[in-house]
Structure formats: structure tokens, C-alpha cells
Amino acid sequence: MKPILALPAALVATCAALAGSSHRTTWELRNFTWVKLARQEKGAEPNDHPALVDKEALQRALAGIRFGDEALFEAAELKMLARPLAEALAEARPDEDLNLLSTNRRGGGMMAPELGLMARLFVRDGRLNVIVHETRSGFMDRIQARDWTPAFTYGSRTEAGSVALTGAARHGARADWVEIPLAGMQPVPAQLPVIVAAPAPAAPAVAPAPSAAAPAPAAVEEDQEKRLRKLKHLREENLITEEEYQKKRKEILDRL
């Protein structure tokens, strides 16, 4: 499993400054299927958010949770959810959880009713916490019959639900709450805040020889290459915008 990275407070502040006042809170995938950031329950300990989680590793981790004799999530469902869940974990603040509603036919075929799964997710102490309130809710039938939308409950730290999950590390005696170890926990690389925020201070000036300008030291070129690679990774994971990517890339290249 690829590593999950819990970002330090200084980097959180830097990312927020770059993004200005924008803070994405909702990922709507289709009708009654979404990921939303929401404030933690009162009295909850701060989460290790934002957290960088590889979406494939996240998909594999969630695939191991079972409900009775079947997987909690379908394979196609997890493939759809992996990216928005990873993006939401990277966007979340320490006082925010992820609320998940995923609605599909749960393997019942085209004529089967759509059933909803409701869960709360967050990262703490190198573990992905998943609290499931309901796994096979038939609320869609009630909506169609009554033109009515329910108030969704996503799971609670303090009030146990009736769901019994298996196939992952159990949290105490709570059958509705699993903690999945995220292997490879590592500190954020020291150069990452520099890439997100501002370029590193220029290397000390070297006086050029009379006949020609002195070339850039090899160490500086290697450092700039690392910064470009890290910057490209941030853009591919949608952690910075295209405008921020191009601006920072130009600043790095101008130092060559």
C-alpha cells in the first residue's frame, strides 16, 4: 500500500493561503451519491487532516470491509468513490469528517431497487476510520412514493449503530466502526512546503569567470528537478490548480 501523509499545521496554512477563501466541501457523483466535508461531532479529538492518500491504496483498503457474507462496497462503486474520497481527505481540515452517501443496486441487477450506504470517515493515528450507520437503506423507494427526502445519518463516534462489519481491524467492541491501518506512514518531505508556498532562497551567488558565465552548480540543478517532480505530482492529484502549477513551474525554471 502506498503511504498516507498527514500534513503539518504549517503546510495546511500555506495551502489555505494559496487557495484563498475557497474550500471545497462537496463531491456529487450522481443522484444521491456524494462525499461531503462536515464538522466533527462535538467533543471529538482533531483528525490528522488534511491527509494525502493514494486513491488505489484507499480503494484496496475499503475493499477489505465486509458486511455479512458480502463486500460492503461493490468493485465498480469503489472505483467511482476512490478519487473523490482521496481528494476530500486532502481538502479536509482537522475539525472535519467525510460524510459518504453511496446509492446503487448492490449487485441486484437492473430491476433491483437502489439501496443507500451511509458512513463517516476520517484519519487519525495512521488509521482510516470508517463508521457505517446503514448499509442497505431503501430510502429511494420512500422518496419516489412520497416525494420526500430523508435526513441522512452518517455514523457516530458516540452512538453505536446496528451494522455488523467484518474483515478489518475492529475498534473496541463497536461492530459498526473499523480502523484500517494505512501502512507506510511517513513525514512530509521537507521540500514539499517550499513547492506549495514559495521558491527556496536562491543559492549564494558565484562570481563568473571573466571569459564566460559560471554554470549552475549540479546540486542546484538536482534540487530544481526534485521540485519540478513534486510540483507535477501535486497538480496530478489536483492539490493545486493549473494556474498555481504554471506559476510555480515558471518560478522554478527561472532559477536555472
Walk me through the structure:
With 256 residues, this protein is α+β, with helices and mostly antiparallel strands. The protein has two domains: 4-181, no CATH class; 192-253. It has seven helices and twelve strands. It has helices spanning 9-19, 55-63, 75-91, 139-146, 192-196, 218-236, 242-253; strands spanning 4-6, 26-30, 33-39, 51-53, 66-67, 70-71, 96-104, 115-124, 127-137, 165-166, 170-171, 174-181. Helix 6 packs antiparallel against helix 7 (242-253). The protein starts with a strand and ends with a helix.
SS-derived structural category: alpha+beta
| Alpha carbon gap, first and last residue | 36 Å
The portion of residues forming beta strands comes to 25-35%
**Which consecutive residue ranges, at least 5 long each, have pLDDT under 50?**
9-20, 184-200
Order of strands across the widest beta sheet? 2-3-7-8-9-12-11
Average per-residue pLDDT, rounded, comes to 77
Largest sheet: 7 strands, antiparallel
Shape: elongated
Q: How many independent structural domains?
A: 2
SSE order, one letter for each helix or strand: EHEEEHEEHEEEHEEEHHH
